[in-house]
Amino acid sequence: xxxTDLRTPNRAPLDNPTIRTQMAHRxxxxxTDEPLADDVVTTLLEVARHAATSSFKQQxxxxxxxxxxxxxxxxxxxxxxxxxxxxxELFVLVADLYRNAWLRExxxxxxxxxxxxxxxxxxxxDVLLAAQNMVxxxxxxGLGTCYLGSILANPRLVISALGLPERTFPVLGLxxxxxxxxxxxxxxxxxxxxTSIDTYPDPAAHAEEITAYDQVVQQYYDLRDTNQRLDSFxxxxxxxxxxxxxxxxxxxxxxxxxxxxxx
Length: 263
Hints:
The structure is a single chain. The protein is of the alpha+beta class. 42% of the residues lie in helices and 11% in strands. The protein has 11 helices and 4 strands, in the order H-H-E-H-E-H-H-E-H-E-H-H-H-H-H. The chain has helices at 17-23, 38-49, 68-78, 98-106, 117-140, 155-162, 191-194, 207-223, 233-239, 245-248, 251-257, and strands at residues 60-65, 89-96, 144-148, 168-177. The protein has a 4-stranded antiparallel β-sheet, sandwiched between helices. The mean pLDDT is 93.
């Protein structure tokens, strides 16, 4: 088995501070009680606001969660212990078609386009681009981050807790704060498996690379500081895919309740 230094971030062929920050990404789930400075929070929201947006529709709203009662509801929805309490700043990024619906309704324009799956997916793209801008900015400032797809384990509770109107949907949460842990770097699938030129890279043609990658992942789980287990990427995909609470939620029904993806 090839020995991998799980304490050292990967390096890209080219190097500058931005690339080093991107290559050093880790998910941080433990934070100190030190709050984020106001100018840091404002900066994170500004870089999100300046992310690329599909056709200039700007279908995004970010909710900063400060009320402990609201945060506890988000915690309950996610089921993840690190979402609760006060450590780390919690944001929820919302795909927002309501604002544009309000603008069109005020002008007497048709609202039907807002019920298409196309516009909802464009809003999700806005959310993900903004979220990545926030993460990159936060990590460039030496902060830790954690995406919270887990809030989709109970999206109705999140919608209720945040008072979200129709035509909106909470795509993900984001924790940002001062890290209280130093986890190892989690290895990713090699470029040969996940990229190609002009045509799809058939996994069967890269079986040996995937097997080698499984060995690296086994090493990661064997050597990491917490929750040690013997596991591999392939084993996780075979045994765990689709079983997490956020993966089993009947999301289409919730989207329809929010008057999204109706056609």
